[in-house]
Design a protein that fits this description.
It is found in: Cytoplasm. The protein has 471 residues and is an alpha/beta fold. The protein folds into three domains: 80 residues, Udp-n-acetylmuramoylalanyl-d-glutamate--2,6- Diaminopimelate Ligase, Chain: A, domain 1; 210 residues, UDP-N-acetylmuramoyl-L-alanine:D-glutamate ligase; 145 residues, Protein-Tyrosine Phosphatase, Chain A, CATH 3.90.190. Helices cover 31% and strands 23% of the residues. The strands form four sheets. Strands 9-10-8-11-12-13-14-15-16 form a nine-stranded mixed sheet, with helices on both faces. Helix 13 links the parallel strand 19 and strand 20. Helix 4 crosses helix 10 and helix 8 packs parallel to helix 9. It is globular.
Length: 471
């Protein structure tokens, strides 16, 4: 059975189909489009109408457009609408209405995607589960996730993000979750909100979209928890280290490559393991365990299944970079280069502080600017020098004008190299890390921390054979 017929898509969008067609998926990118997809010609950095001919040539079942694109015949399979973004939202709304299962929506300043992926792993063995791809959490990502969801899905996991005020509530009302989670509230997007209270109010607006009888789950340990509590009302359930939390975390043990958590909920004990170190991961997992019962899953099975989750690339994935296979020289890389704010930076520093390098190796942090922090940005960077985990690091190398504040605040024996840009620091990477080291790379995506990850990986791609063999 097709995901979309031309008749259903026209009904959902108010558009006009040029011919009958049926689509098995929905795509906004010709690079990943599969034959049989409905191509949605969104306008972002480029106008999607420029790629309609290419999409149809690659086997798209049809294209959702607001006009006849150049190079496309009038009898091509099209769905013509007044506005493509509005039509995509119509597809999402129609898909949500016909969905037979339950919906979990997740937001938070830190941990949205990690929690979503943990939930996908934890619930997939119990329910027929679909989840948002990557970080598809904005004005087009949420309706696209809904539009891609088969009606027979038993559990859909939606991620909802924001950059400015007023973005979360409309997306939550579109998704209509049965359970909504706020992972945490931290200093992210301060430029747009000014203070943590404003961020908390925006995050709490995810509860506005809850279905009748839905459950609001949120962190009990925050200075802004009262704001979340007021928004949740009688539907609220909490997780955290606070004794009064509905799911109370009693003990967190950080090992080199794991986190062991002991918790209590409704007078019974819960023991769960996460396959990466991090107190923040213990909290993310706790929110999923708390969500299990209202989503029709088993909390105990959920707690055990979480151990199968692994950090994805750019979000704390740990890997070995072989520097010399003959001599057995290597280093350990923690790739946390996808994004950064003060809370996630602190969590990353906790992680490397808990990690054990090889004999003779060092703990090295390579950090780039955290962005969108507003007028307090320099002081927030400087304050990282006071993080308890810094005491266990041998060197901290930094890149970016904001990270200069941290560089200057570090004690001389820990102060590594500073460069204006990630590109400049990447050019020196061979002199900054050595065999046996465990190296954390962390920073905002726009500050190009990923270039440093690539540079470290490339250390393992050099030809290290003896000169006679390499000729």
């Amino acid at each position: 059975m097709s995901l979309w017929t031309s008749a259903d898509a026209a009904r959902a969008t108010g558009g006009c189909a040029t011919t009958e067609w049926a689509a098995d998926g929905v795509s906004i990118d010709t690079r990943t489009l599969a034959p049989g997809d409905l191509f949605v010609a969104l306008t972002a950095a480029r106008d999607g109408h420029e790629f309609v001919a290419q999409a149809l040539a690659k086997g798209a079942a049809a294209a959702l457009v607001s006009r006849l694109p150049e190079g496309v015949s009038e009898d091509a399979p099209l769905l013509i609408v007044d506005d493509v973004q509005t039509a995509l939202e119509g597809l999402g709304r129609f898909a949500r209405d016909r969905l037979q299962g339950r919906v979990l929506a997740i937001t938070g300043s830190v941990g949205k995607t990690t929690t979503k992926e943990m939930a996908r792993v934890a619930f997939s063995g119990q329910r027929r589960t679909e989840a948002a791809v990557a970080s598809y959490n904005n004005h087009w990502g949420v309706p696209l996730t809904l539009a891609r969801t088969p009606p027979e899905t038993e559990l859909l996991i939606v991620e909802i993000g924001m950059s400015h005020a007023g973005e979360i509530a409309p997306l939550s009302r579109l998704a209509r979750p049965h359970v909504a989670i706020v992972t945490t509230v931290a200093a992210a997007h301060l430029e747009a909100f000014g203070n943590l209270e404003g961020i908390a109010a925006e995050k709490a607006s995810i509860f506005e979209g809850l279905e009748s009888g839905g459950v609001a789950i949120y962190n009990a340990d925050l200075p802004t928890t009262p704001i979340l509590t007021a928004a949740a009302g009688d539907s609220g359930m909490t997780f955290g280290l606070t004794d009064s939390a509905d799911l109370h975390i009693r003990d967190v043990t950080l090992a080199d490559e794991a986190t062991i958590v002991r918790a209590n909920h409704e007078d019974y004990d819960i023991l769960y393991r996460i396959s990466a170190p991090g107190r923040h991961l213990a909290l993310n997992a706790a929110s999923i365990i708390l969500a299990a019962k209202p989503l029709g899953a088993d909390p105990d099975v959920t707690a055990q299944a979480i151990s199968a989750w692994q950090p994805p690339a750019g979000r704390g994935a740990r890997e070995t970079v072989t520097l010399d296979a003959v001599e057995g020289r290597s280093l350990t890389l923690i790739d946390d280069a996808f994004n950064a704010n003060p809370a996630s930076m602190a969590a990353a520093l906790d992680r490397i502080a808990a990690a054990e390098p090889e004999k003779g190796g060092r703990r090295i942090a390579i950090l780039t600017d955290m962005l969108e922090l507003g007028p307090e940005a320099r002081s927030l960077h400087k304050s990282l020098a006071d993080h308890s985990g810094m005491n266990r690091l041998a060197q901290v190398h930094t890149a970016g004008p904001l990270m200069r504040a941290l560089h200057e605040a570090l004690p001389s024996d820990r102060r590594g190299h500073w460069a204006e840009t990630a590109e400049e620091l990447a050019a020196e990477i061979a002199t900054l890390v050595h065999s046996g080291d465990i190296v954390l790379v962390k920073g905002s995506k726009s500050s190009k921390a990923a270039l440093l990850v690539d540079a470290i990986r490339e250390l393992g791609h050099r030809d290290r054979r003896p000169a006679a063999e390499a000729r």
